[in-house]
Specification:
homodimer; alpha+beta; 60s Ribosomal Protein L30, Chain: A; Phosphoribosyl-aminoimidazole Synthetase, Chain A, domain 2; seven-stranded mixed beta sheet; four-stranded mixed beta sheet; flat; Thiamine-monophosphate kinase (chains A, B)
Chain lengths: ~350, ~350
């Protein structure tokens, strides 16, 4: 490898890095075949470098599509040196694929927008693209297109596409009174990692294992694709959303979209060891960390009470509450009191220089 | 209207501006019905604010999807005051829909990423979103989702989705020797406007009408959706690409993807009056402006010679050259000589601070 840093132009990076990392996509694409009869094939991917990527969809499909921007240098843990360029590329894909998972869909492709500053070498640019590629592989899809080029700083944004059999997508709006509220895995680790690393007190040393587990939520976030598909296939899930805006915001969003209320049971809410450890060190309410603006990619979903046992035989999850007819999302505490949910509401203020309010 | 500037947070802008501008999308969506039997309906759009937008696709479709980032403050004419926030939103959509048009597809939706600086008021943010909305309406689709929030400067990126009957999408790779090379409308006006306005010489005053025409290419760019659909429906077009990287780059891309060469006839290349006027003022080669890195959204396409007359009865276009078997894209000059194409190659250097080369 050259020791001299290389700064190629956009056509060169397209012709070299992009084609090398994302080559022969039609051959690589795992064709979708539903038992119901639908099929999805890739006709032209990133390597075709046409105006657009092309999929062929035959039969009845729900096509789901969402876009998420990821802060570049605003991405605090990257600025602080805890994440590298590969991690950012990986994260970009996980964040976008998580929205596909939350619809119960199978991801088929990602389009990534990667704009880089003048001082980003070809090697670092390639690390971003490799992270994007590897995360796509991890989640069973391909980076089929996007846009690269210069900018005055690193800018990362993406769009993910998914499909499921027609009528199968899981919306937020179907929760019914009496449904059980469930969570795929505990939340709060991403928020705890951020709180711990930003506190930056030299005497605040928590267990290395906890720190590694927490950082993994940022370095290799796990979009719940398998779980989302299983929830969709079960046919008994009435609503679903990912927790990328925090557990509290997710519960409030499902309740609002469904026109219902939710009571969360404090005793049923899982608190990861790492969250408990950080909360103790920093004198935080662990429930606030679990509920607050931690960017985890778990799924919250609702199931009719009669169906929840059957679903639990096929999938691991936590039952954290119940859907009520009357509005409001509240916490039933262990001491018998009922309170508002703890945790910061979703405002993205911590990373958002646009957080001024009128 | 309040005279005090208002800076709402992200949830407020979602609940107010986004829902107001993009409300009731399922009712607004124009369902797609192909004579061949395919159908596309919108199930959940931007107003649903679910994890993803959802389309239902029944029958056989080619789904085409592409992403384009638009420079914010790097967007020179905006920095210079010639474009406002509404214009940027409009441009963002046109640039993205142009890629759908170039595939011969019908646009069904756009996802827009709009991240704004702390000093962008609700009113200016709304202007961006209104431009996005109006451009979508102009091109027959909806802004079905995306991502908004803060950033340290204005960042605009989008993804456009389109469909056509299965097997109908127009790729770059089908041009055959003997095909006629065609262009929907003249290129160069966007580049001429940029060159003129950046030259900024007070004594360089060209005709107001020319300036308005040229600026319209930036303020209300026209994605060739109608033309793209007509080319697809004709069944005789062998390749197609938009000219957003410049006419020269487009011709070279089609030639390369198709494994052919192209000879452009100088006498057949249309030169708009505005381009001629600016070229004279600034002592530029008008052919260089027409061929170079002007960001126009015209379509270049190829048609078998036997079919071109029939197509011309249904659609207006310019025949500018011919496809050859041997490689190379050249210009046959009026004086009988054959030269390389004039005009800067595609490097995005003029707007690209990342333009350092090894």
């Amino acid at each position: 490898m050259s020791t001299e840093p290389v700064f190629s132009d956009e056509p060169t990076r397209l012709a070299d890095t992009i084609v090398r990392i994302f080559g022969d996509q039609v051959g690589e694409f795992a064709p979708v075949r539903w038992p119901e009869g639908g099929a999805v094939d890739l006709i032209a991917g990133a390597d075709a470098q046409d105006d657009c990527a092309v999929f062929r969809l035959s039969g009845d499909h729900d096509l789901v599509v969402g876009s998420d921007y990821v802060r570049g240098p605003k991405f605090r843990l990257y600025e602080m040196g805890h994440l590298d360029e590969y991690d950012l590329g990986y994260y970009l894909v996980a964040a976008n694929v998580s929205d596909i998972a939350a619809m119960g869909a199978t991801p088929i492709g990602v389009l990534s927008v990667v704009r880089y500053p003048p001082d980003m070498t070809d090697d670092l640019f390639e690390r971003v693209m490799q992270g994007i590629h590897d995360a796509c592989s991890r989640f069973g899809c391909l980076n089929v297109g996007g846009d690269i080029g210069g900018a005055e700083r690193l800018i990362l944004s993406a769009t993910a596409l998914g499909v499921c059999p027609g009528g199968g997508s899981l919306l937020r709006s179907g929760a019914k009174p009496g449904d059980v509220v469930c969570l795929t895995s505990p939340t709060g680790l991403a928020g705890a990692a951020m709180a711990y690393l930003r506190a930056d007190k030299p005497d605040d040393v928590i267990d290395e294992q906890h720190l590694a587990t927490m950082l993994a939520n940022w370095k290799r976030p796990h979009a719940r694709v398998h779980e989302g598909r299983a929830l969709r296939a079960s046919g008994v899930v009435t609503s679903c959303q990912d927790t990328s805006d925090g557990l509290k915001a997710t519960l409030e969003s499902i309740a609002s979209a469904s026109g219902v209320g939710i009571t969360v049971q404090e005793r049923d809410l899982p608190i990861p060891e790492g969250v408990a450890a950080v909360a103790e060190h920093l004198d935080l309410d662990p429930l606030g960390v679990v509920m607050g603006d931690s960017v985890d990619f778990e799924l919250v979903f609702t199931v009719a009470r009669a169906e929840v046992e059957g679903l639990a035989e096929r999938l691991d999850f936590h039952r954290i509450g119940v859907v009520r007819q009357d509005a409001g999302v509240v916490l039933a505490r262990g001491d018998g009191t009922v309170t508002p949910l703890p945790g910061k509401a979703w405002r993205h203020v911590s990373d958002d220089p646009g957080g001024r309010r009128a």
